[in-house]
Amino acid sequence: MKKRLGMIDSGLGGIMVLNACVNAYPNYDYVFIGDQQHAPYGDKSKEEIHSYACDLLNYFQSQGIQDVIVACNTICANALDSLIKEYPHMKLHGIIDATVKELPSDVKRVLVLATAKTVAAHAYRDAILSRLSTCEVYEVAAVKLVPLLENEGSQEALQEALEEYLLPYQGQVDAVVLGCTHYPIVKDQIEQIIQVPVYDSDAAVVKSVPFVKHDEPGSVTIYTTKDAQLMHRQIQTIIKKDYDVKELTLSS
Protein backbone atom coordinates (compact mmCIF):
# COMPACT_ATOMS: atom_id res chain seq x y z
CA MET A 1 0.00 0.00 0.00
CA LYS A 2 1.31 3.44 -0.92
CA LYS A 3 2.25 5.79 1.89
CA ARG A 4 0.86 9.33 2.09
CA LEU A 5 3.36 11.79 3.49
CA GLY A 6 2.55 15.37 4.40
CA MET A 7 5.07 18.18 4.41
CA ILE A 8 4.73 21.74 5.71
CA ASP A 9 6.74 24.94 5.45
CA SER A 10 6.18 28.65 5.82
CA GLY A 11 6.46 28.94 2.07
CA LEU A 12 8.78 28.07 -0.76
CA GLY A 13 11.75 26.61 1.10
CA GLY A 14 10.19 23.24 1.82
CA ILE A 15 10.01 22.63 -1.93
CA MET A 16 13.74 21.88 -1.77
CA VAL A 17 13.14 19.20 0.87
CA LEU A 18 10.19 17.86 -1.12
CA ASN A 19 12.31 17.63 -4.26
CA ALA A 20 15.03 15.69 -2.45
CA CYS A 21 12.46 13.24 -1.05
CA VAL A 22 10.70 12.75 -4.39
CA ASN A 23 14.00 12.13 -6.16
CA ALA A 24 15.02 9.51 -3.59
CA TYR A 25 11.61 7.93 -2.95
CA PRO A 26 9.23 8.62 -5.86
CA ASN A 27 6.84 5.89 -4.73
CA TYR A 28 5.17 8.00 -2.01
CA ASP A 29 2.10 10.19 -2.33
CA TYR A 30 3.42 13.57 -1.15
CA VAL A 31 1.15 16.40 -0.05
CA PHE A 32 2.98 19.69 0.50
CA ILE A 33 1.57 22.91 1.94
CA GLY A 34 3.53 26.16 1.70
CA ASP A 35 1.96 28.81 3.93
CA GLN A 36 3.07 31.71 1.75
CA GLN A 37 0.23 33.87 3.04
CA HIS A 38 2.02 34.16 6.38
CA ALA A 39 5.65 33.97 5.21
CA PRO A 40 8.11 34.71 6.62
CA TYR A 41 7.54 32.96 9.94
CA GLY A 42 10.86 34.27 11.25
CA ASP A 43 9.38 37.60 12.32
CA LYS A 44 6.23 36.16 13.90
CA SER A 45 5.57 35.51 17.59
CA LYS A 46 5.79 31.99 19.00
CA GLU A 47 2.03 32.04 19.44
CA GLU A 48 1.48 32.92 15.79
CA ILE A 49 3.93 30.25 14.60
CA HIS A 50 2.16 27.66 16.74
CA SER A 51 -1.25 28.73 15.44
CA TYR A 52 -0.18 28.56 11.80
CA ALA A 53 1.37 25.13 12.32
CA CYS A 54 -1.84 23.87 13.94
CA ASP A 55 -3.85 25.04 10.94
CA LEU A 56 -1.56 23.08 8.62
CA LEU A 57 -1.64 19.95 10.76
CA ASN A 58 -5.40 20.17 11.19
CA TYR A 59 -5.78 20.11 7.42
CA PHE A 60 -3.68 16.95 7.18
CA GLN A 61 -5.67 15.46 10.03
CA SER A 62 -8.89 16.13 8.10
CA GLN A 63 -7.39 14.32 5.10
CA GLY A 64 -6.28 11.30 7.11
CA ILE A 65 -2.57 12.07 6.71
CA GLN A 66 -0.74 11.08 9.89
CA ASP A 67 2.92 11.21 8.80
CA VAL A 68 4.26 14.77 8.38
CA ILE A 69 7.70 16.23 7.75
CA VAL A 70 7.95 19.64 9.41
CA ALA A 71 10.18 21.18 6.74
CA CYS A 72 10.33 24.54 8.50
CA ASN A 73 13.14 25.23 10.94
CA THR A 74 11.24 28.08 12.57
CA ILE A 75 8.37 25.74 13.48
CA CYS A 76 10.84 23.09 14.64
CA ALA A 77 12.71 25.56 16.85
CA ASN A 78 9.67 27.24 18.37
CA ALA A 79 6.71 24.86 18.34
CA LEU A 80 7.61 21.26 17.51
CA ASP A 81 7.81 19.97 21.09
CA SER A 82 4.34 21.27 21.92
CA LEU A 83 2.92 20.08 18.60
CA ILE A 84 4.16 16.54 19.23
CA LYS A 85 2.27 16.57 22.55
CA GLU A 86 -0.86 18.07 21.01
CA TYR A 87 -0.96 15.67 18.05
CA PRO A 88 0.07 12.35 19.66
CA HIS A 89 -1.64 10.34 16.92
CA MET A 90 0.51 11.97 14.23
CA LYS A 91 4.15 11.23 13.47
CA LEU A 92 5.90 14.60 13.13
CA HIS A 93 9.43 14.56 11.73
CA GLY A 94 11.58 17.55 12.68
CA ILE A 95 14.65 18.53 10.70
CA ILE A 96 17.09 20.26 13.08
CA ASP A 97 18.72 17.21 14.68
CA ALA A 98 18.87 15.46 11.31
CA THR A 99 20.64 18.46 9.77
CA VAL A 100 23.16 18.73 12.60
CA LYS A 101 24.06 15.04 12.16
CA GLU A 102 25.40 15.96 8.72
CA LEU A 103 28.28 17.89 10.32
CA PRO A 104 31.59 15.99 10.48
CA SER A 105 32.84 15.18 13.97
CA ASP A 106 36.06 17.18 13.56
CA VAL A 107 34.43 20.52 12.75
CA LYS A 108 35.58 23.28 15.11
CA ARG A 109 33.73 26.46 14.11
CA VAL A 110 30.26 26.54 12.61
CA LEU A 111 28.21 29.41 11.25
CA VAL A 112 24.44 28.92 11.43
CA LEU A 113 22.32 31.04 9.09
CA ALA A 114 18.68 31.03 10.15
CA THR A 115 15.60 33.16 10.69
CA ALA A 116 15.45 35.55 13.63
CA LYS A 117 13.09 33.28 15.57
CA THR A 118 15.26 30.18 15.02
CA VAL A 119 18.36 32.08 16.13
CA ALA A 120 16.56 33.45 19.20
CA ALA A 121 15.58 29.92 20.21
CA HIS A 122 19.24 28.76 19.88
CA ALA A 123 17.91 25.46 18.57
CA TYR A 124 20.84 24.82 16.24
CA ARG A 125 23.45 26.00 18.73
CA ASP A 126 22.09 23.64 21.37
CA ALA A 127 21.81 20.72 18.94
CA ILE A 128 25.37 21.24 17.69
CA LEU A 129 26.86 21.58 21.18
CA SER A 130 25.04 18.48 22.41
CA ARG A 131 26.89 16.53 19.72
CA LEU A 132 30.12 18.54 19.40
CA SER A 133 30.66 20.05 22.84
CA THR A 134 33.86 21.97 22.02
CA CYS A 135 32.60 23.48 18.78
CA GLU A 136 32.30 27.27 18.45
CA VAL A 137 28.89 28.18 17.06
CA TYR A 138 28.06 31.53 15.50
CA GLU A 139 24.40 32.29 14.81
CA VAL A 140 23.30 34.90 12.28
CA ALA A 141 19.71 35.95 11.68
CA ALA A 142 19.63 36.33 7.90
CA VAL A 143 16.37 38.26 7.99
CA LYS A 144 16.50 39.63 4.44
CA LEU A 145 16.74 36.29 2.65
CA VAL A 146 13.25 34.79 2.97
CA PRO A 147 11.42 37.97 1.86
CA LEU A 148 13.77 38.25 -1.13
CA LEU A 149 13.26 34.60 -2.09
CA GLU A 150 9.50 34.59 -1.55
CA ASN A 151 9.00 37.84 -3.47
CA GLU A 152 11.41 37.09 -6.32
CA GLY A 153 13.94 39.72 -5.33
CA SER A 154 16.73 40.62 -7.73
CA GLN A 155 19.97 38.65 -7.91
CA GLU A 156 21.82 41.84 -7.02
CA ALA A 157 19.81 42.27 -3.81
CA LEU A 158 20.30 38.61 -2.90
CA GLN A 159 24.05 38.78 -3.49
CA GLU A 160 24.32 41.94 -1.41
CA ALA A 161 22.40 40.36 1.48
CA LEU A 162 24.45 37.15 1.34
CA GLU A 163 27.71 39.09 1.40
CA GLU A 164 26.46 41.12 4.36
CA TYR A 165 25.83 37.95 6.37
CA LEU A 166 28.77 35.84 5.18
CA LEU A 167 31.79 38.05 4.53
CA PRO A 168 32.44 38.78 8.25
CA TYR A 169 32.93 35.01 8.74
CA GLN A 170 35.05 34.35 5.67
CA GLY A 171 38.12 32.43 6.85
CA GLN A 172 36.69 32.27 10.38
CA VAL A 173 34.57 29.08 10.20
CA ASP A 174 34.97 25.49 9.01
CA ALA A 175 31.36 24.90 7.99
CA VAL A 176 28.03 26.63 7.45
CA VAL A 177 24.65 25.19 8.42
CA LEU A 178 21.61 26.50 6.57
CA GLY A 179 19.04 26.67 9.35
CA CYS A 180 16.18 27.63 7.06
CA THR A 181 14.86 25.48 4.22
CA HIS A 182 14.63 28.54 1.97
CA TYR A 183 18.39 29.06 1.99
CA PRO A 184 19.40 26.03 -0.14
CA ILE A 185 17.77 27.89 -3.03
CA VAL A 186 20.91 30.07 -2.99
CA LYS A 187 23.32 27.41 -1.71
CA ASP A 188 25.63 27.76 -4.71
CA GLN A 189 26.02 31.49 -4.07
CA ILE A 190 26.64 30.86 -0.37
CA GLU A 191 29.38 28.32 -1.17
CA GLN A 192 31.04 30.71 -3.59
CA ILE A 193 31.23 33.43 -0.94
CA ILE A 194 32.16 31.46 2.17
CA GLN A 195 34.41 28.78 0.57
CA VAL A 196 33.73 26.08 3.19
CA PRO A 197 31.34 23.09 3.22
CA VAL A 198 27.67 24.08 3.50
CA TYR A 199 25.12 21.73 5.07
CA ASP A 200 21.34 21.85 4.65
CA SER A 201 18.25 19.82 5.51
CA ASP A 202 17.53 18.31 2.10
CA ALA A 203 19.77 15.23 2.18
CA ALA A 204 19.43 15.04 5.96
CA VAL A 205 15.67 14.52 5.78
CA VAL A 206 16.01 11.79 3.17
CA LYS A 207 18.40 9.95 5.51
CA SER A 208 16.45 10.49 8.73
CA VAL A 209 12.86 9.71 7.73
CA PRO A 210 12.21 5.94 7.63
CA PHE A 211 11.18 5.73 3.98
CA VAL A 212 10.32 2.35 2.47
CA LYS A 213 10.77 1.67 -1.24
CA HIS A 214 8.14 -0.15 -3.28
CA ASP A 215 7.22 -0.39 -6.95
CA GLU A 216 3.96 1.56 -7.12
CA PRO A 217 4.25 5.03 -8.68
CA GLY A 218 3.71 7.93 -6.33
CA SER A 219 2.27 11.42 -6.73
CA VAL A 220 2.94 15.02 -5.69
CA THR A 221 0.22 17.44 -4.59
CA ILE A 222 1.25 21.00 -3.77
CA TYR A 223 -0.81 23.66 -2.04
CA THR A 224 -0.07 27.29 -1.29
CA THR A 225 -2.10 29.53 0.98
CA LYS A 226 -1.42 32.51 -1.28
CA ASP A 227 -0.97 32.61 -5.07
CA ALA A 228 -0.87 29.33 -7.00
CA GLN A 229 0.45 30.88 -10.20
CA LEU A 230 3.28 32.55 -8.31
CA MET A 231 4.35 29.35 -6.57
CA HIS A 232 4.07 27.38 -9.81
CA ARG A 233 6.44 29.84 -11.49
CA GLN A 234 8.82 29.80 -8.53
CA ILE A 235 8.95 25.99 -8.50
CA GLN A 236 9.70 25.89 -12.22
CA THR A 237 12.55 28.36 -11.70
CA ILE A 238 14.05 26.63 -8.67
CA ILE A 239 13.76 22.89 -9.37
CA LYS A 240 12.77 22.87 -13.06
CA LYS A 241 9.61 20.81 -12.49
CA ASP A 242 6.12 21.57 -13.75
CA TYR A 243 4.03 20.64 -10.73
CA ASP A 244 0.41 21.71 -10.53
CA VAL A 245 -0.14 24.05 -7.58
CA LYS A 246 -3.49 24.59 -5.88
CA GLU A 247 -4.61 27.33 -3.52
CA LEU A 248 -5.72 26.30 -0.04
CA THR A 249 -7.67 28.41 2.44
CA LEU A 250 -7.08 27.61 6.11
CA SER A 251 -8.86 28.89 9.20
CA SER A 252 -6.38 31.61 10.25
Automatic annotation (TrEMBL):
Recorded superkingdom: Bacteria
Q: Which UniProt keywords apply?
A: Cell shape, Cell wall biogenesis/degradation, Isomerase, Peptidoglycan synthesis
What metabolic or biological pathway is this protein involved in? Cell wall biogenesis; peptidoglycan biosynthesis
PROSITE patterns found in the cross-reference section: ASP_GLU_RACEMASE_2
GO biological process, alphabetically ordered: cell wall organization; peptidoglycan biosynthetic process; regulation of cell shape
Output the Gene Ontology terms for molecular function: glutamate racemase activity
EC numbers for this chain: 5.1.1.3
Enzyme category, top tier:
isomerase
The active site lies at 72, 180
Q: Which catalytic reaction applies to this protein?
A: L-glutamate = D-glutamate
Q: What does this protein do?
A: Provides the (R)-glutamate required for cell wall biosynthesis.
Describe the family membership recorded for this protein in Swiss-Prot or TrEMBL: Belongs to the aspartate/glutamate racemases family.
**PANTHER family of this UniProt entry?**
GLUTAMATE RACEMASE
Protein name in UniProt: Glutamate racemase
* Species of origin: Copranaerobaculum intestinale
